[in-house]
Amino acid sequence: MKDNVELVVVGAGPAGLEAAITASQAGMDVVLIDTSPKLGGQYFKQVPESFQSDDRTGNQAKANKLFQRLRSSTVKVFHNTLVWGIFEGSTPGTWCLTLYGPGVPERINARAVILATGAFDRSIPFPGWDLPGVITAGAALTMIKSQRILPGKRVILSGTGPLLLEAAALLIEGGAEVVGVCESAANLIWRGIPYLPAVWGQWGRLREGLGYIKTLAGARVPYRLGSAVTSARGEDRVNEVTMAKLDRNKKPIPQSEVRQAVDTVVIGYNLTPSTELCRQLECELEFDGGRGGFIPRRNERMETSCPGIYAVGDCAGIGGAEMARIEGRIAGYAAAGKLGHMPEQSVLRGISREEPGLRHEQRFAELLGDLFSPPAALYTLAGPDTIICRCEQVTLGQIREAISYGAQSVSDVKNMVRSGMGNCQGRTCGSIVAHILAVQTGRSLEDVRYLNIRPPVHPVPINVVEEHQQGLRNLEQGMARE
Amino acid sequence: MRITKITTNLPALRRGKTIEVIVDGRRVEAFEGELVSTVLQAENICIFGRKHTTGRPSGIYCGMGVCYECLVTIDGTPNIRACQTFAADQMVIETTGNVKP
After folding, report:
1. N or C: which end of chain A has fewer CB within 10 A?
2. Nearest Cβ partner for B61 among A136, A175, A422
3. Residue A478: its pLDDT value, please?
4. What one-character DSSP code corresponds to residue A374?
């Protein structure tokens, strides 16, 4: 199989699909890589091959159109494939991606790479959050939408943002008893007023949101603004939670605590951009709390500080599917221009055509980021015995001890107590440890930074890494002979 | 619990053909296209493994391959993500192992 291409796009969600289609239409030779067996990512998630769905929703129609355009293009797709590292290629100005998947080359060289790796749910730990039965909003949505399985019978939701509403509505439609939705943000209406211009024109989103609220109201489910689930209890599965109202500073008010029997807790404090590959490449990052924390710094062509590496969609700052699609197209034009497939004039024309839409989406993302930022004060819900790093079973107490012994960064804490060293490579606990550090040392998140990422960015069998090393050695020897 | 209701946001859906998997030595009916995590959930199994250091139970958390909390042993291979693996006829799934990686 050919292992030299002009462009590799990582991630087949809305951003990656648009990027791949745009670049290939300009005449580029494109490979699109995704971890899952089907196109669409999380947003346009398809039901499995062997299921037959009668989905005629507008969203599905949009997705199908995109899939159709991809299938009629020359883009080659590698499914079920992990990109576990990106390295400087053997010829200057190229990048080498190391892959793990069925029937794909171990390495692929590209002159440009567009990262469209998306985002995942942000977690805020509380006592009992690691019990079976406590799941993320993304998990609940995936189970219901693409597998038609109900995560539980009696459910409470806690977190912030529109995803929580969608999860609640689908749980109700699927037949679960939803006992309440705790939304940590308060005064949504008042705080939303300055943003009215940003909402103008977002009719599809508003209709969707209103639909969910109607479903909640129809089932008489309380939507509690300014509250949160503060702890969960159970032996082998959660069976009870405590929820509380939050004060002005987002601290739980002890007198307002209420206990509730449930078998499932759905938590979703907005999303975290999946920046692992950017960080492994040591792209310059910038901090934007409203867009999900540290995100790659980009120019107006979506190019990061690493030349030829572009980042688009939620992995470059939470902005939603529509923004992801626009950014994907812009990066597609930019990459095509860089490699001489499109005259500069056409690139500029393409980008300026996307600009009004992009600005509109950016304003809306600002609104969502401001209204639904996960409140920092909630990071104090965890107790000394609460597990923070699930993989390595590291408690808050151990992390605090490491800090008191002088740990200055998330990486220091990792070196001392192993938090972030397990299977998920700090995806779940990395930002939590950063918050704990910031609170305990009185520093800002920008200052505390984030976990360094080294390849492999996903766990792969050790022989895969070994084979890559051997390949590199052969390559070096070959070059030495030349 | 498998959802059979049809609603606005959950349009009609037909699962794949019936298959049989072996969960902790027990024969269990499942459907083609279902994830291992779905099959276990339908059987009311919520503990997929136990942490080797503390013995705390673990199961589904992120549901999208990020957190590695749902690891099970499949056909003898340990540490496979149940949420990313489709069930197949006669697949042997073990939930208790969670061998140290």
Report:
1. C
2. A136
3. 58
4. P
Nearest-Cα residue of chain A relative to residue B86: A48
> What are the start and end residues of each CATH 3.50.50.60 domain in chain A?
4-120+272-342, 123-269
Nearest residue in chain A measured CA to CA from B7: A173
Q: Residue A72's CB: how many other CB atoms inside 10 A?
A: 9
**CB nearest A51 (choices: B16, B57, B66):** B16
Answer for the pair A302, A310: CB distance below 8 angstroms, yes or no.
Answer: yes
d(CA A86, CA A89): 9
Model pLDDT for residues A407-443, shown as the tens digit of each residue = 999 999 999 999 999 999 999 999 999 999 998 999 9
**Which of B13, B50, B53, B80 should one mutate to test binding to chain A, selecting the residue with the greatest count of A CBs within 10 A?**
B13
Closest CA to B66 of A148, A324, A274, A311: A274
Burial of A447 (0-12, 13-18, 19+ CB in 10 A): middle
- Give the residue range(s) of CATH 1.10.10.1100 domains in chain A: 382-448
pLDDT band at A482 (very low <50, low <70, confident <90, very high): very low
CB contact under 8 A, A423 and B68: yes
More confident residue, A209 or A147: A147
A227 in contact with B, Cβ within 8 Å = no
- Above pLDDT 90, what percent of chain A? 76
Lowest mean pLDDT among A87-101, A185-199, A466-480, B80-94: A466-480
Average pLDDT of the segment spanning A105-120: 96
A49 touches chain B (CB under 8 A): yes
Average pLDDT for chain A: 92
B55 touches chain A (CB under 8 A): no
Q: Which CATH architecture has domain B18-94?
A: Roll (3.10)
* pLDDT score of A474 more than 80: no
Architecture of domain A123-269: 3-Layer(bba) Sandwich (3.50)
The domains of chain B are located at: 18-94
ipTM given for this complex: 0.95
Tell me the whole-structure pTM to 2 decimals.
Answer: 0.93
The predicted-structure confidence for A243-299, as pLDDT tens digits, reads as follows 999 999 999 999 999 999 999 999 999 999 999 999 999 999 999 988 999 999 999
Cα–Cα distance measured from residue A321 to residue A319, given in angstroms and rounded to the nearest whole number: 7
Does B5 sit within 8 Å of A173, measured CB to CB? yes
In chain A, the largest separation of any two C-alpha atoms, in whole Å, equals 76
Q: Is B101 on the interface with A (CB under 8 A)?
A: yes
pLDDT on residue A11: 98
- Which of B:76-95 have CB within 8 Å of A? 79, 83-84, 86
Cβ distance B63 to A140 less than 8 Å, yes or no, reads: yes
Considering CB atoms only, which of B3, B59, B63 is closest to A150?
A: B3
Pick the CATH number of A382-448 from 1.10.10.1100, 3.40.1190.10, 3.30.1330.60, 3.30.450.20: 1.10.10.1100
As assigned by CATH, the class of the A4-120+272-342 domain is alpha beta
Give me the sheet containing A227-234, strands edge to edge: A227-234, A238-245, A258-261
